[in-house]
Design goal:
There is one protein chain. This protein is an alpha/beta fold. α2 links the parallel β5 and β6. It has a domain of about 150 residues: Rossmann fold. α1 packs across α2. The strands form two sheets. It has an eight-stranded mixed sheet. Strands 3-4-12-11 form a four-stranded antiparallel sheet. The structure holds hypoxanthine and magnesium ion. Magnesium ion (MG) binds next to β8.
């Protein structure tokens, strides 16, 4: 696992491939998921260590009051841990980055896939005008939903709009979107845990893991 050398990208930890993940039986995982996972890709402790550093980077970069915007449901855990680290810097490290916290859900416009926008539910969008905004996501895969979200948020006239994603998937389906802050670049595998789900399962798992064929089958959506 090395730091990305591609300066066009936000620098982050690069997880090379699925073979470099950890054996499941070496970690504590919920009993009810033990057959449903192949391996541990990112242990919970490593996620937290990385978020502590990204919180420092954010506090270095941004000095104005900040609206931190959690994209539910998947972003819940990373948002909560990241905000906690920023709060610790504010109380113990002599830093001062006032935060306001917002929570949204995204809904696609089903009849107009090409609109390039999304419907946002859960907040009064006019709160963003003239503000510094940081969007916090769990994962960027194709990049399509984050691009649409940014298009929609930019219409509100924020002073600045930055994006944060815990995970960035290396996939041929990517549209090339690069968040400003990235925790880990991961191989093209379906991952669950740390609030990332498969059909609403696995959010209650602390580590980011690769799902197994058994898990895929067990929690497959009824047709
Ligand atoms: N896991 C969970 N949700 C996702 C993923 C993934 O790998 N990619 C896009 N959404
Ligand atoms: Mg998400």
């Amino acid at each position: 696992m090395t730091e990305s050398s591609n300066k066009a990208h936000a620098s982050c930890i690069v997880i090379p491939d699925a073979e470099n993940t950890y054996p499941l039986d070496q970690f504590a995982v919920p009993q009810h998921y033990k057959d449903d996972l192949n391996s541990v890709m990112i242990p919970n402790g490593l996620i937290l260590n990385r978020l502590e550093k990204l919180a420092q980077d954010i506090v270095e970069d941004i000095h104005a009051p900040l609206v931190v915007l959690c994209v539910l449901k998947g972003g819940h855990q990373v948002f909560s841990d990241l905000v906690n680290f920023i709060k610790q810097l504010n109380t113990r490290a002599g830093r001062s980055l006032p935060l306001s916290l917002e929570f949204i859900r995204m809904k696609s416009y089903h009849n107009d896939q090409s609109s390039g926008k999304v419907e946002i539910i859960g907040m009064n969008m006019s709160n963003l005008k003239g503000k510094h905004v940081l969007v916090v996501e769990d994962i960027v895969d194709t990049g399509r939903s984050l691009v649409k979200l940014c298009n929609t948020l930019n219409e509100q006239g924020p002073e600045t709009l930055r994006t944060f994603s815990l995970l960035l998937k290396r996939t041929p389906h990517s549209n090339g979107f690069q968040p400003d802050y990235v925790g880990f670049e991961i191989p093209d595998e379906f991952v669950v845990g740390y609030c990332l789900d498969y059909n609403e399962y696995f959010r209650d798992l602390d580590h980011i893991c690769i799902i197994s064929p058994v898990g895929r089958e067990k929690y497959k959506e009824a047709a």
